[in-house]
Amino acid sequence: MENVLTSSSLGEWLRGCLMSFPEIQGETFLKKAEELEAKNNDHSVLYKLLAMESLNCLSAEEPQWTFIAARIYLRELYETVQRNRGNIDAPPYSNLYGLIEQLVNLKIYNPAILSSYSKSELKEAEKCIEPEKDKLFTYIGLKTLADRYLAKGFNGELYELPQERWMLIALFLMKDEDRSQRMGLVKEAYWALSNQYMTVATPTLANAGKSYGQLSSCFIDTIDDSLRGIFDSNTDAATVSKGGGGLGIYLGKIRSRGSDIKGFKGNSSGVIPWMKQLNNTAVSVDQLGQRQGAIAVYLDVWHKDILEFLDAKLNNGDERMRTHDLFTGICIPDVFMEMVENRDDWYLFDPHEVRQVKGYSLEDFYDETRGKGSFREKYADCLNDERLSKKCVPAIEIMKRIMRSQLETGTPFMFYRDTVNRLNPNNHKGMIYASNLCTEIMQNMSATTVHSEETEDGEIIIRKTPGDFVVCNLSSLSLAKVVGDNVLKRVIDIQVRMLDNVIDLNSIDVPQAVITNKKYRAIGVGTFGWHHLLAKEGIKWESEQAVSYADKLYEIINYYVISASSDLAKEKGEYPVFSGSEWHSGEYFSKRGYDAEEWQHLRQRVRRHGMRNGYLIAVAPNSSTSIIANSTPSVDPIFKKFYSEEKKNYKIPVTAPDLNAETAWYYKSAFYIDQSWSILQNAARQRHVDQSISFNLYVTHNIKAKELLDLHLLSFKKGLKTTYYTRSTSIELEGCDSCES
Fold first, then answer.
1. For burial by CB atoms within 10 Å, which of 27, 327, 408, 500 has the most?
2. Catalytic option among 53, 126, 160, 440
3. Distance (Å, whole) CA 381 – CA 147
4. Comparing C-alpha atoms, which of 78, 205, 185 is closest to residue 121?
């Protein structure tokens, strides 16, 4: 490796870095660099000092200093990795096959890479690696990638470089493709990743090609109303957390506090004690040493335990009733929001009592059309049945409790269950009760139940009826880059194939999750960089132009994603329950008003060839992966144009992407944006998203109750399926790592 640590070569190299960005004035920095070099013989210390000096120069006026810092950090990475590989004199990216062989022997890489590809194929892959693509990283992006995702030894020693991570992901996800086209697909996947046109979800980014961990982001479970069902679900939650996944759990079938157990009245303790168990699981089961488990729990707004549930994350009151480490979500039918607006009374029921007395489960129904339908009919039936115990609470009082908790803790999330189920393309096979940890996944759910347990030949045989245990497989498009370079369709085609392959390659230790994953073959194509794109296009956030742009862009994305999945179905076969779905009947297209000629042609293609995937689009939060790809997270506006990214072990200055005199005017802070415009944008894109969107509301801590209520009512009326955090200026919220993509 070239030795850069002489005054002449170091100065020459740094001058080359500075010349890449002519707007940066770097003479003072070069003199400082030479002074630092004279005082430090330790290469790694010198690089850290130089990188910090570069970041000290970073400002909204000179944002390009982050790339100087990144290139200095790259030199440190190159030397560190080559030293750990035992070949300090080799140039970086010079021996991919040797790296794979070494890390397979160390049990870090999956041996399937070596058994699936020939040595010549891996040599061919090495020739496709483009070291120049490392220059696309900002300092914070490169550091995030290195700290969290590049392959390390069991003592934390770094072995992998950024372009090798992209290539290993490509090789692993394409390893079972037809050999006649496999290397071409590997190169295409590497092209999409290395150009930062897309990112894969955090578990895939961290674990693809490695010998441990699974590839999917989030899971959703439905807990059966039985002691065995509750504890089995807790075990499954621990298993998922151990593998690095986040979890959404629907509690709505569990009987309420004071309900009967085997006919004995008043013995049930309700959902809160079971939430305490899940809270302990989230804290105690560590996710691969990176973070504690992450679990969101959902409950219906008509459940008798709803008021205690809404207080579960508050910072005051009885600690025995608090679950501070869980996230909460409310499942809301249309009729409740109508009652809130009309200031009517709302009634709470015990789901177990409803099942016993009425012979049906209230949560199993939804309104098929806005304003009328099965849920409100069953709700009225329960209300008028004198055999059922019920509790009356003004609907607005429950809403006040929701908003109070949101301003104090950021939660509960809002899940508009009737809207979700009306637009479920697979409603022929089930019901959607709740969402996941980040509110973007909408898929059929049902509880797993034990139907027999017996001994046989000295062994215990347990037989279960598997429920739909939802798995979400995510990756996201970098909007500013794919639109700017006009590569949207090309990226989506390879992205959908990569996601579909995750389903078959994944290792999940929960059997019902494996079954559900293969049954629906659900994927979640997402996006990030919306604010980045608006700024580059010169479009104001608070404008009809932005709403219209969201509508048109996401319609195009949806068209390409459906087309890609149908093409895969023609090549590999449709998902097992395609027949009878709204994809099959064409109802999916009718419900969304897709009447244009090109849509009608696509509708016929889908009818003819089927769909490879039962669910397609889900927009995740992806805050960390958007940092890696130097863009803005998800569909969110930025917090500030210039800020510091703080983690446990560092504080790094960051600017908005592509910040300059022109784009600065379009980077308005989230907390100063009229949120109604954000809702209108999201409503426009939601029509084209078959699942949902991690959509945050940004409010000031002193917002009036009526103003926040109006935002929720507008979200409901405009057809949003969910809202995620209510982010207030008075609280700091951690981003969701599990659904990062």
1. 327
2. 440
3. 57
4. 185
